[in-house]
Write a structure and sequence with these properties.
Elements lengths: L1 H9 L13 H17 L55 E5 L14 H5 L5 E5 L3 E3 L5 E2 L4 E4 L5 E4 L4 E4 L2 E6 L2 E5 L5 E4 L5 E4 L7 E4 L2 E6 L2 E5 L4 E4 L3 E6 L2 E3 L1 E3 L1 E3 L12 E5 L2 E2 L3 E3 L3 E2 L3 E5 L2 E2 L18 H4 L4
Parallel strand pairs: 1-2, 2-5, 3-6, 4-7, 5-8, 6-9, 7-12, 8-13, 9-14, 12-15, 13-16, 14-17, 15-19, 16-20, 17-21, 18-22, 19-23, 20-24, 21-25
Antiparallel strand pairs: 10-11
Helix pairs in contact: 1-2
Enzyme class: lyase
Pathway: Glycan metabolism; pectin degradation; 2-dehydro-3-deoxy-D-gluconate from pectin: step 2/5
Cofactor: Ca(2+)
């Protein structure tokens, strides 16, 4: 705890990621996040395991739950399947089901049935969708702890607006969303949880942004055409897994860690498994600063240029800095 507390206090001006009014609500949530980050750290990364399923499925992550033909009646079985560093992430398993019925977005006063109303509720929730829908977010979607967003069985697109922000929270899983054409927008007052509204700064066009978050599983997402990064993970986020996702048509795909001097990112741990890095990608697959990464079974469709096929790039570093890279 003291390790993270020191680091967060020293660089507190950089922790306000687009929060225009850093009030007591966000200060309290930050301190809670510090404790969660330390608890989620794996001192032995090799011990981060996923539960293997009972039947033969070529995708070992999906084998945990795809053998069940009645999966729609047993959706919460998914909560036992988080692989890699996110193992043990249960999301909204201990909560009730919440069905999203309304695609209309309202940043400050979302009505029951809207996605923002669901993700800002207190306590665990398992969030599903009544049917296929397109959601255009005018402001960042701030997701609170202990939530599962489960879009399996529906075609749910978040597009032509703002993306998803996971900040100073824990125990989240997101499955089956299509996130694309995310654009920068002006800031404003939005609902952050069930009782708090606060001012946010301008958004920069990330598809999914993790900031000081722990125990997060992103699975079977499709991401493309975001103005900034498809997935950005910064400020000491830890214990997260990105699996079975499909990335296309973008320049800066993933960022893990905001800068080398930020020491809290040295404890960042991420599993990247069974993703497809498809056509139209340029760089950052991923770009990292300090974290521990377990990468397994990913597939890349690289351009024909030789430089684009480099697995590691030493850039402007000296030989002594990169000669022992694996």
């Amino acid at each position: 705890y003291s390790f993270f507390l020191f680091l967060f206090i020293v660089i507190i001006p950089t922790l306000e990621d687009h929060i225009a009014e850093y009030d007591d609500f966000w200060k309290a949530r930050e301190l809670e996040a510090i404790e969660n980050l330390d608890k989620a750290y794996h001192s032995n990364p090799e011990e981060a395991e996923s539960k293997k399923g009972p039947c033969e499925v070529s995708n070992h992550v999906d084998s945990c739950r795809r053998c069940d033909r009645d999966w729609e009646k047993n959706r919460k079985k998914l909560a036992d399947c988080a692989p890699g560093f996110a193992h043990g992430t249960t999301g909204g398993k201990d909560g009730e089901f919440y069905v999203v019925t309304d695609p209309i977005h309202n940043g400050t006063g979302p009505k029951p049935g809207a996605l923002r109303h669901a993700v800002t509720q207190t306590g665990p929730l398992w969030i599903t969708f009544k049917g296929s829908m397109t959601i255009k977010l005018q402001q960042k979607l701030i997701v609170t702890s202990d939530k599962t967003i489960d879009a399996r069985g529906a075609n749910v697109e978040i597009c032509n607006g703002v993306g998803i922000t996971i900040q100073f929270v824990k125990n989240l899983s997101i499955h089956g969303l299509q996130i694309h054409h995310i654009i920068p927008t002006n800031g404003g007052k939005i609902k952050n949880d069930e009782i708090h509204h606060g001012l946010r700064g301008d958004s920069d066009g990330d598809g999914v942004s993790l900031f000081g978050a722990s125990n997060v599983w992103l699975d079977h997402l499709s991401l493309h055409h975001c103005t900034d990064g498809l997935i950005d993970v910064v400020q000491g986020s830890i214990a997260f897994t990105i699996s079975n996702c499909y990335f296309t048509d973008h320049n800066d795909v993933m960022l893990f860690g905001s800068s080398d001097p930020y020491n809290a990112d040295k404890k960042m741990q991420v599993t990247i498994a069974l993703n497809h890095f498809g056509n139209g990608l340029v760089e950052r697959m991923p770009n990292t600063s300090n974290p521990t990464i377990i990468s397994q079974g990913n597939r890349y469709s690289a351009p024909g240029t030789f430089g684009a096929k480099d697995v590691t790039c030493s850039g402007l570093l000296k030989l002594a800095q990169w000669k022992n890279w694996n």
